[in-house]
Amino acid sequence: MRDGLLLAGILFSLGLTSLLVRRNLIFVLMSLEVMLNAAGLAFVVAGARWHQADGQVVFLFILAMAGAEVAVGLALVMQIYRRFKSLDVDALSEMRG
């Protein structure tokens, strides 16, 4: 159990670090996916520790949310690229209204 939670913590930390460091929207979306998968892994490991299926059920909800996030996120990325011809987060400061 400890190894699984340690792995989840490391994955979440890597995703958070990448989210804060990267400036490309594609990498930001990938970082969010890594963080969601790390949270799901923590739920599954904790559920296995207490012999409950709740962790696996929550992981299914996390997967559904991640799928919706990917669909909406990629649609937004495509629209941003069409309008600004760049995926750099700093170049999108023009979006402020």
List the helices and strands and how they pair.
Layout: H1 2-21, H2 25-49, H3 54-84
Helix pairs in contact: 1-2, 2-3
What would you say this structure looks like, in words?
The protein has 97 residues and is mostly helical. The protein has helices spanning 2-21, 25-49, 54-84. The longest helix is centred in the last third of the chain and has 31 residues, at 54-84. The model has no long low-confidence stretch (mean pLDDT 92).
Give me the count of strands.
0
How would a crystallographer describe the biggest sheet? none
> Which structural class best describes the helix and strand composition?
mainly alpha
Element string (H = helix, E = strand): HHH
Question: In angstroms, what separates the terminal alpha carbons?
Answer: 48 Å
Question: Which segments are poorly predicted (pLDDT under 50) over 5 or more consecutive residues?
Answer: none
Features:
97 residues; mainly alpha
Summarize the structure.
The protein is an all-alpha fold and 97 residues long. Helix content is 78%, strand content 0%.
